[in-house]
Amino acid sequence: MRRRAWAVAAGTAGVALSLAFVRLSLAWSDSQPYDPEVTEPRYVAFIVIALAITASGLVAATLIWRGRR
Description:
Blueprint: H1 2-30, H2 36-66
């Protein structure tokens, strides 16, 4: 039961960290001048980084859930 709680916390933390990253990075990006050649690839990079953060949280949750055997 305790391992399950830690796994859920790790998965939730990964998603929360990803959402915070997206919020802060978009706020920063919106303060920059809009140039399609720079801004659009920046948004794609934000998406990739947010997905990587979420995936790492889910991998950590899976590893915690399985535990040591």
